[in-house]
């Protein structure tokens, strides 16, 4: 009895520690993608406020410089970032499928304190991944709308001596992240990708269940 009680306590404490680690990792990924999205929104807000408060073109062009800095930052870290993100998503998909299988098939086999880890970790991973993918897929939507307004702003895209700046603004593109193997882009991270990824998790779980039968 004492051995079983000790095992129960140690396994429960291990589960709590693992949950804290998972939660911490989730915070890192969620905060990183959210901070970038927040900065993009702040640049757009700053652009609007400068347009209302300050008419000088050079003040509005400062927001373009800030946007380009974010683009350059993402370009510099793109190869390792995209590769790590791809392998992370594939690995998490495999873990989620296994946890779903554990939640469905082993409810009468495993002790409660171990069985509950399956749905808990599966739900936690799904929430974290969907939050990250939602923020990442919002980059393109947000920046596309923002650049559309910039390119149609006569004060920002000036004529005459500002033709060079006008061409720079016209050449700017929305921020779109990719799943890639180093510099080989495979899939764009957009709303469709997020939906397809969730569908893949469901299909993978069903396929494993049918195979196990």
Automatic annotation (TrEMBL):
<keyword id="KW-0812">Transmembrane</keyword>
<feature type="transmembrane region" description="Helical">
    <location>
        <begin position="20"/>
        <end position="41"/>
    </location>
</feature>
<feature type="transmembrane region" description="Helical">
    <location>
        <begin position="114"/>
        <end position="133"/>
    </location>
</feature>
<keyword id="KW-1133">Transmembrane helix</keyword>
<feature type="transmembrane region" description="Helical">
    <location>
        <begin position="84"/>
        <end position="102"/>
    </location>
</feature>
<keyword id="KW-0472">Membrane</keyword>
<protein>
    <submittedName>
        <fullName>Uncharacterized protein</fullName>
    </submittedName>
</protein>
């Amino acid at each position: 009895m004492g051995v079983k009680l000790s095992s129960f306590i140690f396994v429960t404490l291990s589960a709590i520690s693992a949950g804290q680690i998972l939660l911490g990792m989730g915070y890192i990924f969620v905060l990183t993608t959210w901070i970038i999205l927040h900065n993009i929104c702040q640049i757009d807000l700053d652009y609007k406020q400068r347009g209302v408060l300050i008419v000088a073109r050079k003040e509005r062009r400062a927001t373009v410089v800030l946007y380009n800095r974010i683009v350059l930052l993402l370009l510099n870290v793109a190869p390792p970032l995209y590769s790590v993100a791809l392998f992370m998503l594939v690995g998490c998909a495999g873990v989620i499928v296994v946890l779903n299988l554990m939640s469905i098939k082993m409810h009468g086999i495993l002790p409660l304190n171990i069985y509950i880890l399956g749905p808990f970790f599966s739900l936690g991973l799904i929430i974290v991944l969907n939050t990250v993918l939602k923020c990442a897929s919002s980059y393109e939507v947000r920046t596309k709308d923002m650049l559309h307004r910039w390119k149609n702003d006569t004060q920002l895209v000036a004529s005459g001596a500002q033709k060079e700046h006008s061409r720079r603004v016209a050449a700017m593109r929305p921020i779109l992240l990719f799943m890639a193997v180093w510099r080989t882009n495979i899939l764009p991270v957009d709303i469709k990708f997020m939906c397809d990824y969730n569908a893949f998790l469901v299909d993978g779980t069903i396929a494993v269940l049918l195979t196990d039968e």
